[in-house]
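User: Can you predict the 3D structure for this chain?
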Amino acid sequence: PSPTGNLICLEFPRHKDPQAPGPPYASPSEAYVAHLSHPGEQVPYDAKGVVKHEPLRAPSKEGLERVAYWKPERTHEVGQGENGVIHDRVSIWRRRN
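Assistant: Here is the predicted structure, written as structure tokens:
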């Protein structure tokens, strides 16, 4: 992997029930934070398939850093709620220096 590159993620579907069948499988923002800031480490999940997010946990030495996070102005229909609310998010990650 490039030491200077960025990883751009479309976080989708963030609001899907983790126990619902896929694909696509549920992919909440907390899962991106847990896995990308601790690559290769075991990430705990509860019995319902929800990541046990620890926001104060220090990232690992090899962990990526989220440098941007936002809600897109528009997205595909599947990424929206019934009332048109956008559930998707975009994040940009890079190696820590």
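The beta strands are 6-11, 64-70, 89-95. The radius of gyration is 14 Å.
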